[in-house]
């Protein structure tokens, strides 16, 4: 599980830098201010959680069920949250917004909240 956290953390971080540069340069001219802000939100959350995944691999063995679920929540939540925002903003740019992605974003956000809750549970178990 540590390998998965490190590999996906590094991959998500790499993609966040690429997508951030893409948004700042290529999309800036064709996006509205609102679309650019949404895209940047996806990039920012992706980078935050890439760093979290890498740090989890360094600080936990990730061998208990709650630790494994924490990693799964961050992996899936980041993918669903950020990539649905990318899909919504890119499809909206052409006027054909993929509305089916709308409900996926909050589901990804819920998984991220669950991941943070499981991290809080880990800390509480260590210190209390």
UniProtKB/TrEMBL annotation:
InterPro entries xref list: DUF423 (IPR006696)
Keyword flag Membrane: yes
Alphabetized Pfam families for the sequence: DUF423
Membrane topology, from the record: Multi-pass membrane protein
Keywords for this protein: Membrane, Transmembrane, Transmembrane helix
Residues spanning the membrane: 6-27, 47-63, 69-88, 100-124
Subcellular localization, as worded in the UniProt entry: Membrane
Family of the protein in this entry: Belongs to the UPF0382 family.
Protein name: DUF423 domain-containing protein
Organism in which the protein naturally occurs: Pricia mediterranea
